[in-house]
Amino acid sequence: MFRSLILSVFKLTFSFFSKELPLYHCKLEVTFQKECHCEGEDKRIPLLQEVFEAFPHTPVNIDIKVNNDMLIKKVSELVSSYKREHLTVWGSVSHEVVEKCHKENCHIPILFCLRRVLLLLGLFYTGLLPFFPITEDFLEIPMPSIILKLKEVEKISKSERFTIWLIDVPQGEEYIQHTFLLLFPPQIIVGHNM
């Protein structure tokens, strides 16, 4: 199983130094595991070059957060200089940014942007998917349980709860109990029995 690091780029200026990056909090939430945190002493965000040097054989996922030609060019140069085209994936939610990434360096695999994910789903459900070319190499969609953690449980409709339950990956007895409570909150069960 490949490990991946997700790197977010917050800011780019012509003189971009690591001291300009904000510091991590001492305690960070692990978004893909419920009630899990990581802690550490080093709160500095590593530079992409440092990540490549520290993890020379680890696949890396780079999410370009801003539409900036210079940023895309510099990231491409770093990936190429470390000869990591086969270990790096890059992209963005923005279709325009993904196109720029692919144009800048077509040897680095790209991610589906949001627009293309929606197109992919539409083509799949209409049966037209086999007739359309796909230039992207990787598809990343957050697990519904992660999306669920970001929403207030009380505001999720029954149809959304059912959809999440259907498509999420089971994770043992604790998951089933959590899902049951999500689908049938105690106030609904108590109210129904009255």
Automatic annotation (TrEMBL):
State the InterPro entries in the record. GDPD-Related, GP_PDE_dom, PLC-like_Pdiesterase_TIM-brl
Q: Which residues does the UniProt record annotate as the domain GP-PDE?
A: 1-194
Do you know which SUPFAM superfamilies this protein is assigned to? PLC-like phosphodiesterases
Lineage of origin: Eukaryota, Metazoa, Chordata, Craniata, Vertebrata
Q: What's one GO MF term for it? A: phosphatidylcholine lysophospholipase activity
Which family does the UniProt entry place this protein in?
Answer: Belongs to the glycerophosphoryl diester phosphodiesterase family.
List the subcellular locations.
Membrane
Q: Which residues form the signal peptide?
A: 1-15
* Catalyzed reaction equations: 1-O-(1Z-octadecenyl)-sn-glycero-3-phospho-N-hexadecanoyl-ethanolamine + H2O = 1-O-(1Z-octadecenyl)-sn-glycero-3-phosphate + N-hexadecanoylethanolamine + H(+); N-(5Z,8Z,11Z,14Z-eicosatetraenoyl)-1-(9Z-octadecenoyl)-sn-glycero-3-phosphoethanolamine + H2O = N-(5Z,8Z,11Z,14Z-eicosatetraenoyl)-ethanolamine + 1-(9Z-octadecenoyl)-sn-glycero-3-phosphate + H(+); N-hexadecanoyl-1-(9Z-octadecenoyl)-sn-glycero-3-phosphoethanolamine + H2O = N-hexadecanoylethanolamine + 1-(9Z-octadecenoyl)-sn-glycero-3-phosphate + H(+); N,1-di-(9Z-octadecenoyl)-sn-glycero-3-phosphoethanolamine + H2O = N-(9Z-octadecenoyl) ethanolamine + 1-(9Z-octadecenoyl)-sn-glycero-3-phosphate + H(+)
Q: Which UniProt keywords are listed?
A: Hydrolase, Lipid metabolism, Membrane, Signal, Transmembrane, Transmembrane helix
Q: Which GO terms describe its biological process?
A: glycerophospholipid catabolic process; N-acylethanolamine metabolic process
Give the primary localization class: membrane
Q: Could you list the residue ranges that cross the membrane?
A: none
- Respond yes or no to whether keyword Transmembrane is given for this record: yes
How is this protein annotated for GO cellular component? endoplasmic reticulum membrane
> What is the recorded name of this protein?
Glycerophosphodiester phosphodiesterase domain containing 1
